[in-house]
Amino acid sequence: MLKTPDRDWWTRHLASVPLPRWVGVRQRFPREREPDLAAAVHRELDRPEARSALTPGAKVAVGVGSRGLAGLFELTKATVEVLTEAGCHPFIVPAMGSHGGATADGQQHLLAGYGITEDALGVPVRSSMEVAELGRLANGMPVYFDRLALDADLVLPLNRVKSHTSFRGPIESGLSKMLVIGLANHAGAQAIHAYGYDRFAANLLEARELLLPQVPFHFGLATVENAYGEVARVEAVPAASLPAREPELLLESRRLQARLPTDDLDLLVVSELGKDVSGLGMDPSITGRYAGNLVGEVRAQRLLVLDLTSASGGNAIGLGLADVTTERALLKVDLAATWINATTSTSVAAARLPIFMPSDRTALQLAVKTSGEPDAARIRAVWIRNTSSLESVLVSEGLGRELEGRGDLEVQSGKGPSFDESGALEPLWE
Question: Are 211 and 136 in contact (CB under 8 A)?
């Protein structure tokens, strides 16, 4: 049995650590967006390259993932409507690798959390872990594909194109990754991750070339999001165009991506992490903390995470990349879900146990004390809700003075966190 820290001792020991004063900062990012998601889906699926594949009577497996895409329900509903109007027989297939505890029921439950149900969409949701092996790469890696999707007349993956949390390459998260891993279920996710992230991008490209001639994939529906969590682009990408177009969409995603107001920090405070925020709980391109060998642009001496999102379902992947957390966060951790995710993705560092404190206040005090700059007036600190919410952030008062006058942000009047008598953080984010 774990011997837990003496709560009262830590509270007394850290009581004298001064906390910085905070000011609000509102950042401005490019805000390109699709004004009507349903209309965008209809527009794209009416393109000749897509419409020609929609044969009346065709069984269409619509691949939907677990990443919490912006507008996921609206995008899926509109896709199903277009397919039905074309005389097709669509059904939903979870395309999320090993997520949901690597079980069919778990994956169906994750989709239901986004409103993706048979009752809501009027089409079946068919979930299974069964796969077929399509072949092997030169290095021996097996390539799998979901049997339900493989038996369909058409596979239509719907996914967001963005940077991946653990590797770099010409393609990262997007349609290709959903085809190779999301629609390969637990077996496929295990297979590619077992070969490590150093060769991940190359294996992904080779697996895609092996897979494409063997599966009924004619086009996919890709989205790109802006820094405000809105859909900036919806695009039907034909199979023939995928190798050239997906890298272009990745570059567009990076251009629109949100970022912190500065890269050089003593302390970064993250109010919540979760799988609904990022595949690694926190987007490492924002925090600078990766589970593998990648080195981020952001340099934070200390990273404090206060809580898990409710939608994470206890999957605390990414918490191990923090230096300090809270007892409250640890009590929400589902070790089974976290460890399955960590071992499947080989991101074991992301599932480690950080130092945890009895309250939000003591956790913040410990992070400040060990940040290398204990002077509250000089500490360079940023506080964010999560790595998907960066429009409004808090910065330490000293850093706020440095940021004044920048055209891409506005330093606002003083505001900051407050704690109750137990040291719990009062509601901070609307």
Answer: no
Give kind and range of the element (H or E) at residue 301.
strand 299-305
Asked if residues 346 and 197 have their Cβ atoms less than 8 Å apart, the reply is yes
Q: CA 365, CA 356: separation in Å to the nearest integer?
A: 12
Q: Is the dihedral of CA 75, 79, 82, 84 positive or negative?
A: negative
Could you read off the pLDDT of 214-263 as tens digits, one per residue?
999 999 999 999 999 899 999 999 999 999 999 999 999 999 999 999 99
Phi, psi of 50 (to 5 degrees): -90, -45
Report how far apart, in Å, the C-alpha atoms of 228 and of each of 72, 86, 391 are.
15, 33, 7
Distance CA 367, CA 370 (A): 5
Between strands 219-225 and 231-238, the pairing is antiparallel
Q: What is the DSSP string of 111-148?
A: HHHTT--HHHHSS-B-----EEEEEE-TT--EEEEEHH
Report the SS3 class of residue 40.
Answer: helix
CA quadruple 99, 201, 212, 142: dihedral positive or negative? negative
Tokens describing residue 308:
């898990």
Nearest Cα residue to 69 out of 168, 173, 189, 197: 173
The single-letter DSSP state of residue 46 is T
pLDDT digits (tens, 9 = 90+) for 252-287: 999 999 999 999 999 999 999 998 888 899 999 899
- Contacting residues for 397 by C-beta, under 8 A, at least 6 apart: 20, 21, 22, 23, 377, 414
pTM recorded for the entire structure: 0.81
Q: Kindly list the distances between the CA atom of residue 289 and the CA atoms of 251, 281, 323, 413, 425, in Å, as whole numbers in the listed order.
A: 21, 11, 11, 30, 25
Distance CA 120, CA 160 (A): 22
Cβ-based burial of 184 (10 A; exposed 0-12, middle 13-18, buried ≥19): buried
pLDDT single digits (tens) 172-225: 899 999 999 999 999 999 899 888 888 999 999 999 999 999 999 999 999 999
Q: Residue 133 phi/psi, 5° resolution? A: -85, 125
Tell me the C-alpha distance between 91 and 32, whole Å: 31
CA distances from 159 to 97, 231, 291 (A): 13, 12, 23
Taking alpha carbons only, the member of 233, 232, 249, 251 closest to residue 241 is 249
Ramachandran class of 313: left when φ > 0, alpha when ψ lies in -120 to 50, beta otherwise: left
